[in-house]
Design brief:
heterodimer; A: 291 residues; alpha/beta; B: 144 residues; ATP Synthase, domain 1; five-stranded mixed β-sheet; five-stranded antiparallel β-sheet; 2 helices
Chain lengths: 291, 144
Amino acid sequence: MAEHVRDIKRRIRSIQNTEQITKAMEMVAAARLRHAQERVESARPYSEKIDELIRRLAENTSEITHPLFIPRERHKVGYVVFTSDSGLCGAFNSHVIRRAEVEMSAQEVDVSLVIVGRKGRDYFRRRNHTFLAEFLAIGDKPLMSQARGIAGALVDLYNGNIVDEVNLVYTEFISTGRQQPVMFKLLPLTAPQIEESEERDEGAVSDYIIEPDAQSVLEMLLPRFIEAEIFRAQLEAKASEEAARMLAMGNATENAKEMIDQLTLLSNKLRQAAITREISEIVGGAEALKG
Amino acid sequence: MAEQAKNKWNSFNLEIVTPEQVVVKEEVEGVIIPSTDGLLGILRNHAPFIGALDIGVIKYLQEGTSHYIACNMGIFEMSGNMLRILPDTAERGEKIDVDRARNAKKRAEGRIERRARELDLLRAEMALKRSLARLKAAEAAEKK
């Protein structure tokens, strides 16, 4: 091998530096993952309760009507893709983007995009897609105020007949080792299904007093339901992103270690070969002198 | 259904849950809610109720002491001795940053005085209402 021991030593040092960086990033991602997971957990009660309230309201009023519940003929379908702002998180973004592309190409009608996260924007912009809206710089902590902004934009698009359906494509956090891109139809809203028999069993819960009236309460509830769903998608995506980053960085650290081991072995071999050669040269020289 | 409060004859469960976290989960004796139709007192065994929440201060009584929480708009539901309040935001009076609330109040007042345009005016009024609620909650929490 033509390589010199010194060159190999230099490469080892460089890989060691990389290893330190990836290791640090792995640990940072682990800490952020923990936070993100906690946030997913603490946001869960709210969306569960909003859900329950819509159901309760539906059970206690003769009929709930709202424009957001009425399905329209699908001329243009909107997809909201939740990607990350920063990279180095393995296949996180490509998985969710692929899921969105599969869904979009299966449609026979027009599709349009709303992008959350810089990586998604960069990807679709390279492919000359246009977006209805983009939301960047979500940061380490998705905030409810951001979810409200996204929700407002989506409802406007829907009410303005620019899209007839809104789907969220995001990554669901299942466990640290498992995240899955999923699609969720947000608009039109699915009216809660009331099972007659179930309601009869709990006869006592009906006869609610509703103030000011069911319609106004519904009008307060629905935007909050939409916001909560978007917020949840954001939080799940964030947790998944950090988990994917942790895994990717962990693998990178492992690979670096392996490379260092191999290179160390190689450098030792080369050193030994050099020593052997020098000895044999000296011995050869001495033999020649004896001559 | 919601579990019954067990410890005392006059208590029931209160949960205040915002989109980001659970702020209160306690057993209380009484709650006063700022509903859109005015203040509403709730005691144990109140009839099932769904209502809209206004910007204001939620007051609840627990073992004889009052607690104050500044809240934003939302929904509440009382059923089976479980009162659930789902405001957009909620802050315990003790934790409110009074200086920040004062500044917000001044800003909002300034904008109203300068006769901002319709939408801005509405926003400023809401901001003013929010900051007033926060100040009230903070003050009440300090007094007790």
